[in-house]
């Protein structure tokens, strides 16, 4: 064993003692790797072009495979001897293939003259990554120096390299043709790679704009970061983008690593949907993002070497973290996490090869040069496929969502169409409704075309009986058939204006059982002829539920005059068909004599409220007499209105107006309050008498009415039993439940209740028994006819007997002579009221009349 060690030691000494080998350059060698003949010396003292002779006195050592020294701060000199073995001159290119050396100086001297006194070098090149790109003798992304070798010439080449980054010196010697071909091939490969990456970036940005999802933006930013990093490491950015700004190129190289890490962590979180599926990994990657951004800012504060080490050192744990997040998502069953994890393993492998190379832990220049591009390409393809799969899924979901939205929109359009139809069509018949009819009529009247216009209305009578007989559904179906028949007939009659040209609707459903059409350019006789044709169509028998039914139709027409208004013309047509008696086949044309709705009525409707407010109405009082004692037991308060323009307005004219305009409650309150005030005056004059006031159905429907009566009684200091409220049986039966509740509340106050005009309305004994009434007033029509009709006398006798059986007092109205008084007394009637005793008296005559009676 000792002998073997001695032999190895001697061999080592012999190799160290070998003279420097000279690199023989021949035409058969288009590319020569210089590393085997390369020697190095770590610079310990400054050497410049002026003292190159110092290099001859230094101790040089063979480089071997140590051209990658990692991150060192020292400057190194490299030396190689070469000889042109040809008999002809040669032009060779010396290439330093690592483009990130800060400072590179190359000196070429003749080897035969190397001695103590160095001659001036044949050539000197000063360039580097920290010098402007224009300093390079040949414009290339790497450092390339031309060598003019004379025939059989011996040369020594010195190369000084100093860099704050990785120190790598891969040297090659090329023929010009071989280098140009290599450079072109390299440029083509890189152009294809960069171009494909740029196309993918543009495509992803387009997807981002289309899909409105950040994951595509993050992926595009990741690709931009990786592409920038690779282009910087390859020297492409310095060559083509910032050739005159070496410092800016340095910052681009440093910034690309933390920027890429930051956007990749964002992409990982979004792509794997960690916020929804794994909050812990989401928070860890969030921290990694902020750390990467902090490293990005630290670049501007740290030295170049420290910033480089920080970026490379940060890339490993962040990459491992992203791979771990992918594995965690994969384990949770996330389908897309599989490709994501594999792609990151590939990229991390490439990055580790580059990092190992940068740190000088290995010397694989070809592998390290293409490790990241190849790994990045594989990762990009895998992630692009994964994103394409996700895009397809998103697209399918969006298509489904779009289909759902389209379906919703279609439903909305259908609803809108239905709403439009419901707003313009009758729901039962499908004909245009009154609004469309009025719009079409207004448009025609406003056109000023010189054409005459008229309308015809057809009203079906007896529909209520049909509802009771056939049921509402069958009755509606019958009306729909009649409407369809009428519209089809109207299409064939010239002169009728179409209300809806698209659906050929000529007839409108003005009201539930009233139809109308607009006719143009017809005189009265022609209008009547056309209306008769349509009416006859409606009156033709129609089958329903096995029955043959004939409808009765009232028909009214109105012809527009100059400046006619739509509402006026419609009102006139309604008035016209109202003049047609049931089962009368006449076609009635509107005539002004038919119109009971004169300007006088409109004026009264307008001024009634003001008259009530100004206390322009007055009360008249008609006495009620006890037929047994002939004493006056009460007064009925009756409202009277003397209009300043029209004079006396009868109650049967202004009371319906009050009911129609909603003033009836105010009128009732005014009458009660005024009657109670007069009753209080009579009591002050020692006249104790009952006061009767008429109330309407609207008063009974007002839940606050009993309370208002109580307040008025309290204010007037009149006892409740001295007030009688008269309500007709028709009003009481309009809403029996509400009426019973209101009258019961009034009765509990002590107010007397009287059923007015009994016998002329419902006369329902069931409801009459439920009413808390105190008296019944026989309708005056029976009293007036009692001497002429035995039936009327029988009715009077029946009402009196029935009322007494129920405990009611009975008042006979319309007493005009002594014979009527005698009849009522004979039949047992309690009280009488009428012209025989007194006409209604104004307030200032009541006291005198009472004193004289």
From TrEMBL:
GO molecular function: cyclic-guanylate-specific phosphodiesterase activity
Residue runs in coiled coils: none
Keywords of the record: Membrane, Signal, Transmembrane, Transmembrane helix
CDD domains according to UniProt: EAL
Signal sequence segment: 1-19
InterPro entries recorded: 7TMR_DISM_rcpt_extracell_dom1, 7TMR_DISM_rcpt_extracell_dom2, Cyclic-di-GMP_PDE-like, EAL_dom, EAL_sf, GGDEF_dom, Nucleotide_cyclase, Rev_trsase/Diguanyl_cyclase
Domain of life: Bacteria
PROSITE patterns referenced in this protein's UniProt entry, alphabetically: EAL, GGDEF
Transmembrane segment boundaries: 191-210, 217-240, 252-272, 284-304, 310-332, 339-361
Ranges where the GGDEF domain occurs: 451-592
Domain EAL positions: 601-853
Protein name according to UniProt: EAL domain-containing protein
Organism the protein comes from: Aliidiomarina minuta
